[in-house]
Amino acid sequence: MKRRPLEGVSKYMLRRYLETRKVIAIRADRISAVSHLLSLLKHCGDDTVPVSPAALANCADQIESELCGILEDLDDFIFPTDADAVVDPVDD
C-alpha cells in the first residue's frame, strides 16, 4: 500500500522543512546565477575569450561554498546517520 508523503509528519517538522527549504532555495539561486553567468561565455564570438583565472576561481569558490552550505543546512535539518538509525529498510 502506498502511503501519502505527509502522513505521520508533524506540523513542527513540516515548519522546519519549510524553513530549511527556504534557506536552500536562496543558495540554489546563487548557484544558478553563477552557472548562468558562466554559460554566457558561449555567446562570445571567439573560441578564445580572455578570462581572469582569479575570476574563474572565485566562481568555483562561490559554487563550492553554496553547495557545502546546502549540505550543512540539510544536516542541520536531519543528520543522515540519525535518519538511518530510525528508518526501516525499504521493502523491494
How would you describe this structure to a colleague?
The chain is mainly α and 92 residues long. The chain has a domain at 11-40 and 58-76. 66% of the residues lie in helices and 0% in strands. The protein is built from three helices and no strands. It has helices at 11-39, 53-77, 80-86. The longest helix has 29 residues, at 11-39. The two termini are 12 Å apart. The model has no long low-confidence stretch (mean pLDDT 88).
Which features does this protein show?
mainly alpha
Show the helix and strand layout.
Elements: H1 11-39, H2 53-77, H3 80-86
Helix pairs in contact: 1-2
At a glance:
Helices cover 66% and strands 0% of the residues. It is built from 3 helices and no strands.
Largest sheet: none
**Uncertain parts:** none
- What is the chain-wise order of helices and strands? HHH
Output the radius of gyration. 20 Å
Give me the count of strands.
Answer: 0
Overall mean pLDDT: 88
Euclidean distance between termini CA atoms = 12 Å
Please tally the helical runs, counting DSSP H or I stretches of 4 or more residues.
Answer: 3
How does the overall form come out from the CA principal axes? elongated
Share of helical residues: 55-70%
Class computed from helices, strands and strand pairing: mainly alpha
Estimated share of beta-strand residues: under 5%
